[in-house]
Amino acid sequence: MSRVKIPVNLASEPFRRDRPILAASAVTAVLMVALLAMLVSTIMTQREAARESREMLDTLDRQIRQLDTEQARIQAELRQPVNAAVLDRSVFLNLLLQRKGISWTRLFADLEGVFPGSVRLVTIRPYVTGDNRVQLDMIVGAQQPEYVIDLLKRLEGSALFGETSLVNSQPPSQNEPLYRYRLSVNYAQKL
Description:
Structural class: alpha+beta
Distance between the termini: 118 Å
Order of helices and strands: HHHEEHEE
Strand content: 15-25%
Number of strands: 4
Shape: elongated
Helix content: 40-55%
CATH architecture of the largest domain: 2-Layer Sandwich
Number of helices: 4
């Protein structure tokens, strides 16, 4: 005869192993409370930084409004018929001084450093752009187009000259044996 074991539990509630689950839940709760505290601290710090930024923007807006008011007052004063002639003369003299500020000697010395011997400078017209930069409008001539390509590479690679654009070109004719190219180039001469 073989014996069969039948499990019998006489307790009112069966035995369960809840201690590891409770310990893990407690550790998770502590970590979540720490994370909550860190998030609240971060939110408070960012709120304070945002408040300071708003105050700074308000201060700057007030200053801008004051400057706009002052500028409007000065412009109104300058627009008066009595001052219009002086303003026009001042603008004219400032433009002349800017143009006079370009040194032709230095300009030709700088161009001599980048021009290949096979390219001829036909005309040059410097002008000052609205942002006080010098722009050169040039017409150059060469026997072969490759010589002008070499000039373009040298101008763009130079520290004194910058972005160069080819405006137009003309092939040789009976009156003019050279290929002619009109170029526009930035020039870094200080005014």
